[in-house]
From TrEMBL, chain A:
It is found in: Cell membrane. This is ATP-binding protein, sugar ABC transporter. It comes from the Bacteria. Its EC number is 3.6.3.17. Belongs to the ABC transporter superfamily. Gene3D superfamilies: P-loop containing nucleotide triphosphate hydrolases. It is a peripheral membrane protein. Residues 6-243, 264-508 form the ABC transporter domain. PROSITE patterns: ABC_TRANSPORTER_1, ABC_TRANSPORTER_2. It comes from Sinorhizobium fredii (strain HH103). One of its GO terms (molecular function) is ATP hydrolysis activity.
Automatic annotation (TrEMBL), chain B:
It holds the Pfam family BPD_transp_2. It is found in: Cell membrane. This is Xylose transport system permease protein XylH. The keyword Cell division does not apply. It comes from Rhizobium fredii (Sinorhizobium fredii). It is a multi-pass membrane protein.
Length: 511, 404
């Protein structure tokens, strides 16, 4: 079945000042899962937007052949008509509409504008069954988890008679169980003859499902690897992506561990919205000077909630428990008090919670400690410039100046700006929540280096991450959380993907 | 220590600079064009000393309220109640002055406090109970208007004692008369000297700023722009100052307005409070998580708006020499329009005091010019609506073009 369903030839796409794609060629065989990988900014999403007609024919150079015919898509509708369906990273679902309404949005089963509900529901039910969902079609999107939402998107694609399914980072916000379910579904579809293109940063998943892998770098095609002809290792893929062998994905560090800085005891928290449901149960942990401590766990285990409830009670209610810093009890009941106690919390979601995107690097850097560059409420412009400039140099933030708006920075550089902001408050303990999510391998390495420097300076680091290899590669000690409880504490020697998963599974059986 | 190399940038060409800053220059150019247009179609009435004085008296309260409204809009909110606060404070001041016979020196601060309380009453619901400001201030608009009818009993109260009227119809006395070179042309020397001093200071401050920027390697606007801008503003200011000096001099409200504009420009550009309001409007959650008390900031933005609306209310009441239940109807729309014409963003985080002030003047000159031309209130509203839409479209168009 070496039938080529899609061939993109010599695609070049330029934006003002940037060549996003430069003479890219890309071939997909019918009935395969084809992975498209590359660092952020390599051009993966742009290529898929060219294919699906988001960038209409004429705005790029090159040819698209689909089903042995040259195609010129003017709109997304043109490509959808031929069964090319793209599911974007940010899900395009309306939260307050039902599953059925979402699936048939813009494509309603209707007669003269009047929706035929019984048929809508029965067809939705059939589609949900195909993707393994048992939810009622009337369930609102907002009431189901991200993993199931992703499956609803796929059901929506199926409703449009999909032949070529494109998934942009489908598992980025899914936990391992949901990811596995999704990948299994893709393999099932492959057996039924459907073709898919999957864009992903998660190389282990790609290894699991892909038939072929095309690597993009800096807007050009590097190579296409056939997974059936040779055994492709993750390192082999990384080498293609970064153009060099990455000896070690995690910079080495000699831990110099000192006294206990932060200690949390008997931390009980009730749910923010469901007020009589206890969400965190007797959580306790400690972070010592110069130590990098990880918190592992599945999505929804309560890791972010633990961090946020400690950081100025930003989440939850009826919060009880004790927080000490160097053995002294500290008041963390408001964010300013938590900052004063020496805590900093780098949020999971940079864009929504970390940065003021329309403000520049300088303004974001000083936001949490503005009074340090001001006298009597008046900002000292010179002092502020110097602070922002110093952090920009120290953390190697790539930008044309400190006046560049945060919205125009890449993910890795945005994260560095958030780090600058918190470092400027001079914290003793930094809580980093998914510090490398959605940033490319090169930038990740730089973030790990910064973490190591901070630990070497004697700061305590508490790192929450869903990427187990990252925790294993950077942490001195790892706590495992599940269902609102700390279920295990593993030393660097004890910790492995298996021991973490075992701890989670075993605790799940108990409750 | 690493040298601060971060602020060095490649020098942009004049064309690039114009393109990036088209909003600010465009606004100023638009104001000048509108002024010249009305000067022409009214056969020179617009710039006559009497009319210029009127223009200031008629629009000062819009400018004053636009200062507070800009902060509200930058914070990501809106205040629809200012017209009703104007009416209510006017009524209260009338009762205190006319019925109770209190002196103006007591009534003015008391009314400012009343305005602050009205702002606080709304700010509480917006900031601490998280009710959308549109709804809270819509309620406030109705409640305060109703209260005005209640306290006035549906009848206007007036006239006012002289010392209260000075607030809006008084002029700065000519204590520099001895410097006057030609008393038959110039009737008030203070106006001329004050404007000369201001223009001189503006040029001095501008040049000093450029020098400081040069020392720190911060980008300056091209000198041509600086010079042209200074020349235009200087000529217009001197011309207006001269015209005013040939009539009765500087109206007191012009001084009040000038001081407030300077103060709010300082607050928005240099103070920590201003910076935090912009950050909050840009991303409230991130600002809150950075340890900033966003509730309190929002609350005080509304208190501030209430105080400024109270000041405006007293100026209007003193000018009309009567407190009526219908005072200030529709003012909120002129004030909000001034901010949006001036480039504020409806989603918060963006906007400048200078923009709002110029926006208010554009509205004011159009109101005044069209009235002189004898255009009815019906067409005036229509034209103002279209100007607002055009100004905001210009913003959106520029933004999209920038994205490519």
């Amino acid at each position: 079945m070496d039938n080529i369903i899609l061939e993109m030839r010599g695609i070049t796409k330029t934006f003002p000042g940037v060549k996003a794609l430069d003479n890219v060629s890309f071939k997909v065989r019918e009935g395969e899962i084809h992975a498209l990988v590359g660092e952020n900014g390599a051009g993966k999403s742009t290529l898929m937007k060219v294919l699906s007609g988001v960038y209409p024919a004429g705005t790029y150079e090159g040819e698209i052949h689909y089903d042995n015919e040259e195609r010129r898509f003017g709109t997304i509708a043109d490509s959808e008509e031929l069964g090319i369906i793209i599911i974007h990273q940010e899900l395009a679902l309306v939260p307050l509409l039902s599953i059925a309404e979402n699936i048939f949005l813009g494509n309603e089963i209707a007669d003269k504008g009047v929706i035929h509900w019984p048929q809508t529901f029965s067809r939705t039910q059939a589609l949900l069954k195909k993707v393994g969902l048992t939810e009622s079609p009337a369930t609102l999107i907002t009431d189901i988890g991200v993993g199931k939402q992703q499956l609803v998107e796929i059901a929506k694609a199926l409703s449009k008679k999909v032949r070529l399914l494109i998934l942009d980072e489908p598992t980025a916000s899914l936990n391992e169980n949901d990811s596995d379910a999704l990948l299994k579904l893709l393999m099932e579809f492959r057996n039924q003859g459907m073709t898919s293109i999957i864009i992903s940063h998660k190389l282990n998943e790609i290894k699991k499902v892909a038939d072929q892998i095309t690597i993009l770098r800096d807007g050009g095609t590097v190579e296409t690897l056939d997974c059936h002809k040779e055994d492709i290792s993750e390192d082999r893929i990384i080498k293609g992506m970064v153009g060099r062998a990455m000896e070690d994905r995690y910079p080495p560090r000699e831990p110099k561990i000192g006294d206990t800085l932060l200690e949390v005891k008997n931390w009980n928290v009730f749910h923010q919205h469901h007020r009589d449901r206890q969400f965190l149960h007797d959580v306790g942990f400690k972070v010592r000077a110069g130590e990098v401590v990880g918190i592992a766990g599945l999505m929804g285990a309560g890791r972010t909630e633990t961090a946020m409830s400690i950081f100025g009670k930003s989440w939850g209610h009826k919060i009880t428990g004790e927080v000490t810093m160097r053995g002294q009890p500290v008041d963390v009941s408001t964010i300013p008090k938590a900052i004063k106690a020496g805590l900093a919390y780098v949020t999971e979601d940079r864009k929504q919670l970390g940065l003021v995107l329309i403000n520049n690097i300088k303004e974001n850097t000083t936001l949490a400690n503005l009074s340090a560059v001001a006298a009597n409420g008046v900002i000292d412009e010179r002092q502020e410039r110097k602070v922002a400039g110093d952090y920009r140099n120290k953390l190697r933030i790539r930008s044309h100046s400190i006046y560049q708006e945060a919205v125009n920075l890449s993910g890795g550089n945005q994260q560095k700006v958030v780090l600058s902001k918190w470092l400027f408050t001079n914290p003793e303990v930094l809580i980093l929540d998914e510090p490398t999510r959605g940033i490319d391998i090169g930038a990740k390495y730089e973030i790990y280096t910064i973490i190591n420097q901070l630990a070497a300076e004697g700061k305590g680091i508490l790192m929450i991450s869903s990427e187990m290899p990252e925790l294993l590669g950077t942490c001195d000690r790892i706590y495992v959380m599940n269902e609102g409880r700390i279920v295990a504490e593993l030393s660097k020697e004890e910790a492995s993907q298996e021991s973490i998963m075992r701890a989670i599974m075993r605790s799940g059986e108990k409750h | 220590m690493v040298a601060d190399t971060s602020t060095h940038t490649t020098k942009p060409s004049i064309g690039d600079y114009l393109r990036n800053n088209i909003r600010e220059y465009g606004l100023l150019v638009a104001l000048v064009i509108i002024m010249l247009f009305f000067q022409f179609v009214t056969s020179g009435v617009l710039f006559r000393p009497v009319n210029l004085t009127n223009l200031v008296l008629q629009n000062s309260f819009i400018v004053i309220m636009a200062l507070g409204m800009l902060l509200i809009i930058v914070a990501g909110h809106i205040d629809l109640s200012v017209g009703s606060i104007v009416a209510f404070v006017g009524a209260i001041s009338a009762i205190m002055l006319v019925k109770w016979g209190l002196p103006a020196i007591v009534v003015v601060p008391a009314c400012l406090v009343v305005g602050g309380i009205m702002g606080a009453a709304q700010g509480y619901w917006v900031a601490y109970q998280k009710i959308p400001s549109f709804i809270v201030t819509l309620a406030g608009m109705l409640v305060f208007r109703g209260l005005t009818y209640v306290v006035l009993g549906g009848r206007p109260i007036g006239p006012f004692p002289k010392d209260f009227q000075i607030l809006s119809t008084g002029f700065v006395p000519d204590f520099l008369y001895f410097l006057n070179p030609s008393p038959e042309v110039i009737k008030n020397m203070v106006a001329l000297v004050a404007v000369l001093a201001l223009v001189g200071y503006a040029i001095y401050a501008g040049l000093r700023n450029r020098r400081i920027n040069d020392q720190h390697g911060t980008e300056n606007e091209p000198f041509v722009f600086f010079a042209v801008q200074m020349a235009v503003i200087g000529v217009v200011a001197l011309f207006i100052g001269f015209q005013l000096s040939t009539y009765r001099g500087l109206p007191n409200v012009l001084i009040v307005m000038g001081v407030l504009i300077a103060a709010y420009t300082f607050i928005t550009t240099r103070s920590t409070i201003g910076r935090r309001v912009y950050a909050m409007g840009g991303n409230e959650k991130a600002t809150k998580l950075s340890g900033i008390n966003t509730e309190r900031l929002t609350f005080y933005a509304f208190v501030n708006m209430g105080v400024l609306a109270a000041l405006a209310g007293m100026i209007i009441t003193a000018r009309l020499n009567s407190a009526t239940p219908k005072a200030g109807v529709g003012f909120e729309l002129d004030v909000i329009a001034a901010c949006f014409i001036g480039g504020a963003s409806a989603s918060g985080g963006v906007g400048k005091i200078t923009g709002a002030v110029i926006g208010a003047f554009i509205m004011g000159v159009m109101n005044n010019g069209m009235s002189i031309m004898g255009i009815g209130i019906d067409y005036q509203q229509l034209i103002k609506g279209l100007v607002l839409l055009a100004a905001v479209f210009f913003d959106v168009y520029n933004k999209n073009k920038g994205k490519g």
